[in-house]
Amino acid sequence: MGKVVMYSSVSADGFIADENDQPGPLFDWLTSGDVPLDESGVLKVSQASYDYTRSYWDRIGATVAGRHVFDLTDGWDGKPPSGIDHVVVVTHRPAPEGWDPQAPFHFVDGVKAAVAKAQELAGDRVVEIAAGDVGGQALAAGLVDEVRMDVVPVVFGSGKRYFGSVTAQHLLENPDAVQGDRVLHLRYQVRR
To answer: Can you tell me which residues the record assigns to a coiled coil (predicted)?
Structure first.
């Protein structure tokens, strides 16, 4: 099985969105460079960010996200973001009425079951877990192998926390950092 990675862009003070669920400038780094990150041509980053991000994105087999994120994005119109093959949505509710059953989205009750389903779908590829409440639950359950953060130079002061409602200490090790344009890419292994 592939690694389980918790990931998001994050403010310098540890938030993935403001109090109104808005990311503000957290994704500005994705359009601040001159190297296309995907085929759309919309996302353009620095060469350092491209080398770091593209190689990671190419290894993702499935993403786990919460129902709140799914609803905020309108289910990405039934197309997983960034060319990912599958999205596993952690929810206690069924798929939305009228949802295309052929779309590569899987609605699963509970974080542990969602990670297991994502691992089944991803095989030896990476399972990415969106940071926030779902990511924090996965970390607290001991399901996360690696934490990735794209730290953006902004301070929100309050909002949606990167680690959600995690209250216990979790040690991270082997930090790795790559400096991009208006972003610092950080990667940590989770100590077992």
So the answer is: none
